[in-house]
Amino acid sequence: VIDKGLLAHVRATGDYFTSHLKPLAVRYHRLVSNVRGTGTFLAFDCPSTEMRTELLHLMRMEGVNMGGSGETTVRFRPMLTLSKSHVNVFLTRFESVLNKMYQKHWPQ
Known about the structure:
Number of strands: 4
Low-confidence stretches: none
Strand content: 15-25%
Distance between the termini: 48 Å
């Protein structure tokens, strides 16, 4: 881990991930709150178990496997080699799912 620079890589990728995830939590505050974590081990909360289940299902339909924890938490536990390009793919799909859920639950 140290010889390959993975610790520094995880810190940098996690900082990048968090810096993009937190603005989505502001924009989609009805679905995402309390973004937290260290490195790429990140988590956030959904408003209910039902919303979290729907979010996880829609993300899986987009090819992204994420896990739940407790009643309303979504957590990320990616491989140490997660890169910024992987994060970008995730963010694109995540925002698409958040948009779909907002349109369904809070139509304009």
